[in-house]
Design a protein that fits this description.
mainly beta; Immunoglobulin-like; 7-stranded antiparallel β-sheet; 5-stranded antiparallel β-sheet; 1 helix; Ig-like_fold; DUF1573 domain-containing protein
Length: 321
């Protein structure tokens, strides 16, 4: 009995599963037993990558299937269909001569989450034989966003959003903040920009955005929130003595939340030393003041760091004057 083989290789334009080789076999027939092998390679997406809801697939996945004829005689691609949605394949009913190959363009509309399948039926002189190509679909969302700065009334939030490295139909994309839809202003390529009213929303809510495509909800996107404002020293001079407790007063001016005797936590980086401090922040009109104490074992000529107030974070630049 003559043993021949057909090699079916699948090249994916979108991430489908982790790198691995899936070996497939066709039901053995006395006339022509065949073996097929499929390699599915995941193309990396830019970090960070967030997994979408399992039910999300609104667009088709385009896959290229190459069939190499190694049978020693010509074959004909008879049909090509998927096990989970509609398919378009080109060229169709084309004859592949011995030693040659053809590429089929397959569009798969996934109807079941996290799985897909393609069945290729080839027709030879000895009959028709199906090759089933199956894998696991990982619908993924990658979001690359810049720091969000809050204005008084509204703020614009630009960030990049990709689903399986594919561009998203701008008409289908919506975003929700605190359970209500945000006002989308523009989409250019994969960069999304929208505005939200900040007057009635807290920073704790604003660091969580939920993108929607069609009727499918994606995984919420976490965005770092920094309120506009800056911190400066209210005193004329700051003297930090090595080994002794040193006090300084911070004056915060800008978009300051309504606080009353709220605890302020902070840290300064001085060479390899981290200086932590706690203080009480008191609101005074459009400003807030905090008296802080630090102790350092190193000569001090300035340090940069951060301080937090609830869910908000501020940058601190401290200089010895």
């Amino acid at each position: 009995m003559k043993v021949a083989s057909v090699l079916v290789a699948i090249l994916l334009a979108t991430p489908v599963c982790s790198e691995e080789t899936i070996k497939l076999s066709v039901a053995e027939r006395d006339e022509l037993p065949m073996l097929g092998e499929v390699s599915i390679t995941e193309f990396p997406a830019p970090p960070p990558v967030l997994e979408a809801a399992d039910s999300f697939v609104d667009e088709t996945i385009t896959t290229r299937v190459r069939v190499n004829n190694q049978l020693g005689h010509s074959i004909t691609i008879q049909t090509l269909k998927t096990t989970c949605g509609c398919t378009a394949a080109y060229p169709r009913d084309s004859i592949i001569a011995s030693g040659e190959s053809t590429e089929l363009l397959v569009k798969i509309a996934i109807s079941k989450p996290n799985e897909f399948g393609v069945q290729v039926v080839i027709k030879t002189d000895n009959g028709s034989y199906p090759f089933k190509i199956q894998g696991v679909s990982q619908t993924r969302v990658s979001a690359v966003q810049s720091i969000l700065e809050l204005d008084k009334d509204k703020t614009s939030v630009p960030f990049a959003l990709r689903v399986n490295d594919r561009s998203i139909n701008p008409k289908s994309l919506r975003l929700r903040v605190a359970g209500r839809e945000a006002d989308r202003t523009s989409i250019e390529g994969d960069v999304v920009s929208f505005t939200v009213a900040t007057a009635s929303l807290s920073a704790q809510v604003l660091n969580r955005f939920i993108p929607w495509v069609g009727k499918k909800e994606l995984t919420p996107i976490e965005i770092k929130v920094v309120r506009k404002g800056f911190v400066r020293l209210a005193t004329t001079n700051v003297f930090v003595s090595k080994g002794d407790p040193s006090s300084f007063r911070l004056l915060m001016i800008g978009d300051i939340p309504s606080v009353t005797d709220s605890e302020l936590k902070g840290s300064l980086e001085l060479a390899s030393e981290t200086l932590e401090f706690n203080a009480i922040l008191s609101k005074r009109g459009r400003a807030a003041v905090a008296d802080c104490t630090i102790v350092t074992e190193r000569p001090f000529d300035g340090a940069n760091g951060t301080m937090t107030l609830g869910d908000m974070q501020f940058m601190v630049n401290l200089r010895d004057r």
